[in-house]
């Protein structure tokens, strides 16, 4: 096989793999909680659904010096927040990142974030074969006192 043909085949394979990945994780209703002037941390929330098993292993944002994946959990009747090394996304199941549960923690904020702004996030997923793939997300900021739950209920109670 000529070198040009091999390069073309490799490029085509990379494009197909990229196209397949772009459909692997669906990010629904991402948002970031607004902050007040001196606040140095906030959370990012969303729903994630993977077509194949993957793991959310990291995140980044230009608005924060440190970005971590966290969970809130009860420990001896006390709600505690802690960093976790990753969050499994089982194939076909929606995993919700929400206040009081799993979330992306944005710390060492470079400036306050307020309603009307959009926060860019880079989510890093790891596949079963340890391949890491980045996905860009634009998360609107919700006002600090605004209703914090996603607006997917369309007016009826669940």
Element pattern in H and E: HEEEEEEEEEE
Gyration radius (Cα, Å) is 18 Å
- The overall strand count is 10
The biggest sheet amounts to:
10 strands, mixed
Backbone shape: globular
β-strand amount: over 45%
Look at the structure and give the mean pLDDT.
Answer: 84
Overall structural class, as computed from helix and strand content, comes to mainly beta
Helix content: 10-25%
Terminal-residue CA separation: 60 Å
- Count of DSSP H/I helices: 1
List low-pLDDT spans.
3-22, 150-158
Q: Could you walk me through the main structural features you see in this protein, from its secondary elements to its overall organization?
A:
This protein is mostly beta strands and about 160 residues long. It has one helix at about 5-20, and strands at about 25-35, 40-50, 55-60, 65-75, 80-85, 85-90, 95, 105-110, 120-125, 130-140. Strands 1, 2, 3, 4, 5, 6, 7, 8, 9 and 10 form a ten-stranded mixed β-sheet that branches. The radius of gyration is 18 Å and the shape is globular. It starts with a helix and ends in a 16-residue tail after the last strand. Mean pLDDT is about 85; it is low at about 5-20 and about 150-158.
């Amino acid at each position: 096989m000529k070198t040009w043909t091999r390069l073309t085949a490799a490029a085509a394979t990379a494009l197909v793999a990229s196209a397949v990945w772009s459909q692997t994780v669906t990010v629904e209703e991402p948002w970031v909680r607004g902050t007040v002037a001196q606040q140095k941390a906030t959370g990012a929330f969303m729903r994630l659904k993977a077509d194949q098993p993957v793991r959310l292993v990291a995140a980044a944002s230009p608005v924060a010096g440190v970005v971590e994946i966290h969970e809130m959990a009860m420990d001896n009747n006390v709600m505690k927040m802690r960093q976790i090394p990753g969050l499994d996304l089982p194939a076909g199941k929606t995993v919700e990142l929400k206040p009081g549960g799993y979330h992306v923690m944005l710390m060492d904020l470079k400036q306050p974030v307020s309603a009307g702004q959009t926060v860019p996030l880079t989510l890093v997923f790891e596949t079963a074969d340890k391949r890491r793939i980045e996905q860009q997300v634009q998360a609107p900021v919700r006002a600090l006192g605004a209703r914090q739950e996603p607006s997917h209920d369309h007016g009826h109670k669940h």
